[in-house]
Amino acid sequence: MIRGLRLARTHPMDSRLKLLTIETPWCNTRRCPIENTQRQSRFGMTVWVRNNPRPLSAALAAVCFAALLIAWAFWQFWDIVWLRGGLAVVLGLMLAYAGWLLWQLSRPRIGADESQLYLFLTAGRAIAVPLEHVECFLLGQAAAMMDDSKRETTTLSLRIAEKAGEFQQRNVLRALGSWCGGYVTVRGTWTQPLSVDLVRKLNRELAQAKEQLAANQA
To answer: Which of 38, 78, 156, 192 is the most buried (most CB within 10 A)?
Structure first.
């Protein structure tokens, strides 16, 4: 692990990103037991960082309300065939979107299994990164990307080893984060509350997972 990690250079993707110093002492699991606060997700992995359900829940509530209005109009104008058909199509699309929002609500933001770290930063499948390529977690700040304002939010950054060339850059949803130059940044707007304690816990869990992976491969 990295002790007393300090980063002074600017993040390559966001010139306003500020990475904070976090002391991450080496943690021997025999002398420093790690509290098991993880939980299993339905994706068959351990949840390391949960998502923030509030934005998606608000969008889901709005979609469901709109779907109810469309269903009411569908019933009221049943005799008008062309309008009934159009409302049926719109209602189907609304229900499909509501289902997609429910699926997004069920996903964590970061998960892991015995050998892979899973980053849910796209609208589709998670991006899997081998645990041995993940060096550490960092806490920082960046633009919230919620509107045109200059508000900032806390971010969680991962540093990827330089030897993992295929994981130095990936396309992700800009609102969720960025992935460039070997740094993966997750905006706190879409995660559980981020703190120094959480980052320290993640670094301990990463060290433990790497030790277990090395033991399994030995």
So the answer is: 156
